[in-house]
Every structure is written in structure tokens, then in C-alpha cells.
Structure prediction request, 450 residues.
Amino acid sequence: MNKLIAAIRRAPKRTASIAIVAASILVPAALFAWGPSRPTFTMENPAPYVTFNSITDNAQQGDERNFVQIKDASAPDSAYSDNVALTPGKDYQVFVFYHNNAASNLDDAAHNYIGVAKNAFMRVQMPATVSAGSQARITGFVGASNANPGEVWAEAYGSASGDYNLRYDPGSATIHNNGTINGQTLPDTLYTTGTPLGYNALDGTLPGCSQYSGYVTFKFHVDQANFTVQKTVSEASNNSYAKQITALPNDELQYKIEYQNTGTTQQDNVVIKDQMPAGISYEKGTTQVATSVTNGQWTPITDDNVVGSGINIGSYAPGGNAYVKFKAKVTDNADLTACGVNTITNTGTAETDNGSKSDTASVIVSKSCTTPPQCQPGSTTSDTSCTQPCTSTSTGSTTTSGGTTCTTPTTPTELPHTGAGDDIATFVGAGSLIAAIGYYVTSRRLLAGK
Prediction:
């Protein structure tokens, strides 16, 4: 950058142009984002009025409408471009060019100073955050109260592969020109309401001609808030942590939750909590914390809210981490949910101002269940635990129930009639025969006169 400034100072006073190596590649202005649409001019035919950044053949800048570029702050000036890939933890430098394109002969009293820009200013803006897969738009604005148009703008971009925060570096804005304010630090209002431009003072007065042109550079930092959380479990007696272990009813366990700041910015008020599932109960007063504040030593805390609303473990710089551990107990066999294998999973969570993340650990516990064996038909077992009644239907068969042999009675041979309907018919038929004999005897007595 010093070489560029030296080149500016060696240039002829009325024809000098800012030597910006970074922007010397000539490309069609239509490829860039700039505005508003306005008349254009050339170095040989400058504007007859105050207007900014509208010359299309500037020997060093190229098409002045593309007046904002960006680069990695550690890269050489030739690395300026219209788009860079952003990386968390890095600083980036932005360049914003300005030039009052009014013809130099309009700057004098004879022309009533109509070529001198009044209240000339520059302002920049960029987003505070950019999401993964999108671009941060860095926009520069240049204008004056008597310019036409009153304000012009152009853009450069930073591409993000993750969710990033963009932070303007206070005090990084510097003006570069041929005047006495060359190298002066600009106020941080450049990033908010804007700052006046000038030649020998930041007074907003800027005559026409490339002699009075210049550029401003400023820096911003890319941050990414990120962290990890890991949950593990161990039998309380052996201090061997894993994502999953096997335990017995009434066993004592120890859970551990690790938080680590893997981003590039500090995270404040980190909260750790655990969701305790059915089948596992937290043991009060067993929570401990290990952090840099405790010199990495486990320190008991009196707060049992790790299984409730959570515990605040403080603030952590990039790379910082912390551990939380506590004891819990497996429920009694009778209180386990299902007979056989039970997989009991609980969840540890870290909550930050940048969101929350969770992880799980599991305990496998088998429940023993006793079910009396069934006495099957035809069984001859003598198992005394068999308490079911004899259910055999086989003729003359035996089963054993509770140590007692049960004999199934033999079914009698079936009678020759076919059913209850036949018995009733037989009874009715016999009654009719008796009645007929009675009527016959009576009728014979009447005929004999007896």
C-alpha cells in the first residue's frame, strides 16, 4: 500500500489518478452490482457537473462504477476482487474508491466553483450475519449535496459456507489521497451514518479532477459461533465412560456431559441440563463441575437443577471447554417397564445464546419376570410349580397338577335313541294308546246295557 501512495504522490498534479493495482483489470461494468443508472464519461471528456464514479476508462481503476472490492487482509493488494470466500477467524479488507468527475476547469471562481463537490461523503454497510450458502453484501456509498445523482453505490461480496458473524474492526478505516489527510484514520461513523470526505481536511469539500480522487480502506472480522456437546455414562464404581453400557437393577451410575466452544467467538451464560428418563433416578447433591476456573479439578456444586432447568457454567472463549458429572441409580427390578431387555436413554443438552445442542447415552438393563408354567393336555410332568387345573379331554388320560395326578373319566357309551326329541315322542305315543283302550272298554259296556 505504501508503494501505491508513493505512486500517487509522483503523479502530475492535475492529471494524477489513484493507482489502485487491485482494480486494474478491465471488465464490463454490467457484470458488477452498482447503481443508480447514470450518464458515463471518459478521462478526455469529463462531466460538466459534479458527479461521482462515472468515468469508464480510468487507467488504474477501469470502470469507476465498480468502485468496491474486497480481499483477505493478509493477501497482497493485487488480490482485491469482487467476491471472496469467507473463513471464520480471518480479517478482510474492503477498498472503496471515490472521484468527483467534474472537469477541473469548473473548480475556479470564474465558473462559480460549480465543479467543487459540497458536503462530499462516504458510507459503507454490511450485514452483521450471513447464513450458510449465501453471500454477505458489502456496499459503499459516495455522494455530495450538489452531486447528480446525489449518491452512487457499488457492491462486493463475501461467500459463506457456514453461519457467520461479520464484525467491523473499529478504527480500521483509513483515507488515502494526495492531500495532507492521506493515511488519516476515519471515524467509525463510516460504518453507520457516514463520514465527510475531503482533500486537505475532512470538510466535505472535494474539487473535480483525478488529482483529488482517493480511496478508503477498512477491515472486518469473520466470526462463527459454534460448539459441541457430548454425553457419556459409566458404572459409578469403575470410571469407564461410554455411549452405552449394561447395568443391573439398583446399580449406581455416573453421567458426564462435556461442552466445548469450537467457534471463533466467546459464548456467555452456557447452561447444561439433563433429561432424566423413567427407570433412572438422579441422586441429589452429586453434581460436580470441572472448568479452567477450577483448574480442571472436579468441584461439587449445591445446585441440583442439572436435571431441571439446568445449571449456568459461565462464559467460554474459543477453544474453552467444561465438564459436568452427576450420579444416578437404576430403579428396582419390579419398577422396570418391560420383562427382558430395557434400553434406557437420557439426553444431555448445552444451551447458549447461539442455540442449543444435545447428545444421548444409554443403559441396557434386563428385567427378570417369573411366570408359572402351563399344564398342557396329556402332560405327565410332576413339576410342583405347575398350578393350572387338568384340562385333558383324552379318554382315560392322566396329567399332573401341583404334584397330584388327575385322571380324566371315561365317557359312557351312547344310548340307542338320538336325542331328547325322540324321548318326548315316545312318551306322547304311549299316552295316546292307553287313552284309546279306555274309550274302547267304555263303549262295550254301554252297548251291553251294563
Summary: The CA atoms of residues 20 and 143 lie 20 Å apart. The radius of gyration is 48 Å. The first strand starts at residue 34 and ends at 35.
